[in-house]
C-alpha cells in the first residue's frame, strides 16, 4: 500500500515545545543527514537573491526586526541572518534562521570562524510557511535570547551564542526576491499579535457556551482573565493530548503576552518524556516571579496520549488545586497575591478546544446519576 504522508518527530531540548510536521510523498525518501551536511551548497543558489541592511547602531534589548516576503518554488530555502564582518563573504552569523520548505522545518544556528554550531529545530507551533504565501517574521532581541514570531504568533526562541547579536552590524534576508527589512524598538512582543481572547464565565461546569462566545482556541494560546480567578472559582480547560505526548504547560499569569516576560503565578508542567515507561506522568508545579522558585514534583498524572482530557485549576483559600480528569494531581501554595492572575497560557502537547471560568463545586467528582 503506498504511503501518502509521513509524520516526523523533532529532536527536543525544551520541556514543552515539540510540534509535528507533515512531509509530502515527494520527500519521504529525502536524506536528512545529507541535507544537514550540504545545506550551504543549496543556500549558495540564493546568494544572488538577498537583501542586506547595515545597522547604524548595535542592537539592544527590545530591538525589533520585521522581515516580510514570499517564498518561491525555485528558491525552496530562505534565511534571515544577523551577523558581523563581511555579509557577502564568510562573516560571522550570530543568528541564522533557515526556513526549509521542502522538509517543513526551520533550523537555527550560529556560524563563527567559518564553522557552524549545533542546529536547533524545535518550535512552539506547526510549520507556518508555504510556497507563494506572504509571511511576516518578527525578531525580538532579549537579554539572553532572540524570540521569533511568524504572522503575529510566537514560533521559537534561540539562546545567544558567540558571537552575540548585540555585536551585529547587519541583518540579511537571502532567498526571497521581494524581501523587506525594518529595524526599530518595541515595548511588547509580538507587536503584530491580535489581542488575546477573553475567557468566558459560565454558571456551572456543565453549562452550554453562550452564543456570543467566540471559539478562538488553538494550540499555544494566550487568553485574558480580565476579572481574574475569584476565590471559590475554577478555570476549566478541555482539550486533546498529542498522540506522541512529550510535555505541556498551563500557566496562570499577570499579563497576557510573551514579552516582557509576565509573572507566572501557577505553572503546571506535565512531562511524559521523563521515565516514560512508568504508568503516571510527572507533574511539576512552580511559579516564576522574576525567577523560578522551588519546584513541587509528583508523579500523579495518568493521561492517555491522543485522548480528550479536562484540567481544572481551582482557587482555594490558601492554594491552587490542579485536577486532571477529576483526579487531584497537585497543589501549589500562593506565592503571590492570587488576585494578580489576569491571563492563561496553554503551551505544548495539549491542544485546547474550550476554556472557561465557573464556580467550583465542593468536590470535583460528580456523583453517579441514579435511575
UniProtKB/TrEMBL annotation:
InterPro entries named among the record's database cross-references: ConA-like_dom_sf (IPR013320), Galectin-like (IPR044156), Galectin_CRD (IPR001079)
Keywords: Lectin
GO molecular function: carbohydrate binding; galactoside binding
A Pfam short name: Gal-bind_lectin
Metal-binding is among the record's keywords: no
Domain Galectin stretches: 51-182, 221-358
Keyword ATP-binding: no
SMART domains xref list: Gal-bind_lectin (SM00908), GLECT (SM00276)
Domain of life where this protein originates: Eukaryota
Protein name: Galectin
Taxonomic lineage of the native organism: Eukaryota, Metazoa, Ecdysozoa, Arthropoda, Hexapoda
